[in-house]
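Entry:
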Amino acid sequence: MKTSALSIKIDPKVKYEAQKIADQLGFSLSAIVNASLKNMVRSKTISYSLLEPTPLLKNAINSARKDRARGKSIGPFYSSKDIMKSLLS
């Protein structure tokens, strides 16, 4: 198989962390990038899985859980009208 070099600019911290994960999984970083590009070409889509919520989302989830524990949760809603009624009240 012929190969071609690809040069990209990447945050050194991201490269380091990605390399550690690739090593733990038993792959080279090059193999992972190559597989990702092949998948993009094959599917004509780019998809990523977010396994770890952002700090903002974590805070929102924790806040909602605390509200629910205190009996301050809203819903369930069975229609968009019910949601809008709750939001506007």
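The first helix runs from residue 12 to 25.
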